[in-house]
Design brief:
127 residues, alpha/beta, 4-stranded mixed sheet
Length: 127
């Protein structure tokens, strides 16, 4: 049996703000969006990142955070460096770059938050 990731879904409080972040800062490709602005979908390789937006959603409380710890994205050298620069311009880096274990072995990792406080990681492996 083969198991692979299909998609990751995150709750967001302002869809336009989150679409802008994941498209313009992260550089992800927006592939669909519901007309009622309740969902946006980004392509990440063969998998998807789905953002759900509802009025009752609230940003993640960084002190009492439960549930998902973080979502990690694997990038090539050029994409990693470009995204890291955009994060530094916004003073958005929480920690890193640091070397740690990932799905492909040891890699360079940097952590930051999206507009709703979801923790994200970008990871770059040596070629």
């Amino acid at each position: 049996m083969e198991i692979c990731y299909d998609h990751v879904s995150l709750r967001v409080t302002e869809l336009e703000q989150s679409v802008s972040f994941y498209r313009d800062v992260m550089g992800l490709e927006l592939v669909s969006r519901r007309e009622d602005d309740s969902q946006a979908v980004f392509q990440i390789g063969e998998a998807l990142l789905v953002l759900f937006c509802r009025a009752e959603y609230r940003p993640v409380n960084p002190i009492w955070k439960t549930g998902t710890d973080h979502v990690a994205f694997c990038l090539d050298e050029g994409s990693y460096v470009a995204l890291l620069e955009r994060l530094k311009e916004r003073d958005a880096v929480l920690r890193g770059p640091t070397v740690n274990k990932g799905a492909r072995g040891d890699g360079l990792a940097t952590y930051f938050l999206d507009p709703d406080g979801n923790e994200l990681e970008i990871k770059k492996y040596e070629a």
